[in-house]
Each structure stands twice: as C-alpha cells, then as structure tokens.
Amino acid sequence: MLSPIAALLLAAAEGGGSSIMSVDTTLFVATLVAFTIFAVILAKFAWGPLLQIVEEREKTIREQVDSAEKAAADAKATLLQHQELLKGAGRERDEILARAAKDAEGLRAELQARARADAEQIMARSREQMQREKEQAVAELRSQVADIAVEAASRIVKSSLSEEAQRKLVDEYIKELPRAVKGGQA
Deepest of 47, 54, 82, 101, by most Cβ within 10 A of its Cβ? Predict the structure, then answer.
C-alpha cells in the first residue's frame, strides 16, 4: 500500500494524469467561489453569534475574576480588621488586668493600713485602761493604807500602853492586814 502522496507522485511521473504543477482552473474557481460563499454565510450567520458568545463568555469570566479579586481583597481587609480588633482586645485585656492588679494592691495596702491603725487604737485604749486601773488600784491601796494607819494610830493612842503592849498590838494588826486587804475592809 502506498501513501496518497506517493501515489500522486507516481501517477505524475508516468504521465498518466495531470501533473502536480498543473492547475485546473474550473476546479480552482469553483473551489474559490464555494469557499467565499461558505465564508460569507459563516461570517453572516455563525461567526457573529460565535464571536458574541465568546465575548460574553470572556466578559463573564472577566467579571467573575474581578469579583473574586474584590472578594479576596475584602476578605483580606476584613482579616486585617479582625486581627487589629484582636490586638486591640488583647491590649485592652492587658490594661484591665494591670488596672485590676494595681487596684487590688492599693486595696490591700489600704486594708493593711486600716488594720494597723485599728490595732494601734486598740493597743492605746488598752494601755489607757490599764493605766486607769493601775491608778485606781494605787488610789484604793493608799486609801486602805491610810485607813489602816489611822486605825493603828487610834488603837495606839487609845491604849497608851507600854512599849511591849504596843508591839503586841502592832503585830496583831499586821497579822490581820492581809485578811483585811482581801476582804476589802480596814
């Protein structure tokens, strides 16, 4: 089997047909007229709508690409905005925590100062009360000692006794003294 080109070359070499270089003008003109009619019909009825479809498709694709780019830009802007909001919220949280820690420290210091002041006041009142009670006890003791001395003097004066009798009287009185102080009488 020979290829079509080889068959044509072989036929031309034998001279049994028209040569490759010879042109059949009728066939050429008919082909040219058919091609022109076909091109005009195609251009009039098919080419315009085909170009319009291609242009509409290109326009649709261009619009979709533009829309996608715009959506991507919007998404990127929204993402940046959200990141800034998160950073701002983080800063605000840190500020709130710092303020709360500072307020807590201030409150703790204030409460400690109040507690110290209250403790000092209680201690001062206790000291004052102890001093008053001490002074009252000393006053009572002086009063009792004065009463005891007056009693002893009156007994000594009443009995104008001898020295020995006076000694005996003082010794008795001294023995009674602890019982008198405990009982609250002179």
Answer: 47
pLDDT of residue 6 exceeding 60, the answer is: no
163 HSE (CA, 13 A, CB side): 0
DSSP class per residue in 117-175:
HHHHHHHHHHHHHHHHHHHHHHHHHHHHHHHHHHHHHHHHHHH---HHHHHHHHHHHHH
Instruction: Count how many residues are written for the chain.
Output: 186
Residue ranges of domains in the chain = 27-183
Average pLDDT over every residue of 124-131: 92
pTM: 0.37
38 close to 50: Cβ distance less than 8 angstroms: no
Structure tokens given for 111: 């409460």
